[in-house]
Input
Amino acid sequence: MLTLVFFVGLLIVLFIIGVPVCVSIGLTCLAVLWFENGLQGIPLSLLPLKMMHGVNNFPLLAVPFFILAANVMNKGSVTPRIFNFANALVGHLRGGLGHVNVLASMIFAGMSGTAVADAAGLGALEIRAMRDLGYPLKYSTGITGASSVIGPIIPPSVAMVIYGWLSDVSIGALFIGGLIPGLMLGLALMATTIVLSYRIPMPMQPRTSLKETLRLSRRAALSLLTPLIIVGGIWSGTFTPTESGAVASTYAIFLGAVVYKEIGFKELIEVFRNTIEFTAIILFIISIAGLYGWLLVRLQIPLTLAESVVKVTTSPTLLLVILMGFFLIIGCFMSVIESVLIFTPIMVPMIKVMGIDPLFFGVLMVISLSVGVITPPFGNVIYVLVSITNQTFEDVVKALLPFLIPIIATIFVLILWPDLVTYLPNLWINR
Output
């Protein structure tokens, strides 16, 4: 237990004082090895091998492909097409552009796989449109940030790719398991918008004519095929989740460069550069996390933690509530990907002992951690919204707070009814 406290405690302390994530993980591993075996007992020749083993994995190829697809989509006119299509469908309802905001995010989530891509791509467009129609900036900021949380839940999801790789759970099943929770979260945010519409001014829009709706549908049709290709391809067995990333990025480039003719060679080079930079950061953290996971297993820390938890509670539901609270707090200080990398090797052996389905746990973990993108002090989406709206950090946080209620309520519903997550994956596996 002393080793466990030292292992986790040192890592958290390094995070708090501002040491970069990859450096914090590496220093923690070296410190624990020194603590256990002494300075001479650190296997220096083995450490780089374990790091390389961490990234030498086929499913991880999906990560750069999905990042590339999101970057290409944000570079062209895909986001305006999606927004206009969503506006034609639900813009006339009570709450107007609030519903459009959520629906557009749900559609874009089926292409991007990250919350930041959603906020950065659709966010500026959504907030500008809501500002032009007279929506309060506070509400516009809040619903835009809250809807971006759907990004890592509806497939594809970079976080689920990494969880599936670490936990040996089918990535395809995780993708499909995120469909119903993602839809539930979207509906919860729409319901919140209706409630808020009785308290704050939300201008009503006239219903879009059938002719105009069909025109906007045709303009967005090829873009809307992206999530259908990804989910449909995986469901039918046409390609694996990893291959779906390659298909999605190729299709996105084809749309932007050939069909829409909006992305030239210069823009494509910029997209590739941004993708390479972001992917390099993620893969470097993954390589360090591979060393971290190997050390966890070597020191039998997950087993020790599982035995300790069983002594505290034998109720899977209570354990999930406790872990959800833990992940909500952790998400305030670490990104979703970093948290999944660090805590999956610790948590999965423990929840298996408690009889919890690791597939269900993976979806719940990603959702709970994703809330962190809109909570201080390190929520990435908060900083994106500060940049877009020119508000203070504190004002953006206040705008987001009311929307935490439907998000957390959705998580509690999933804990009480796990079949909402596992039904579709079981149907897919047994088809």
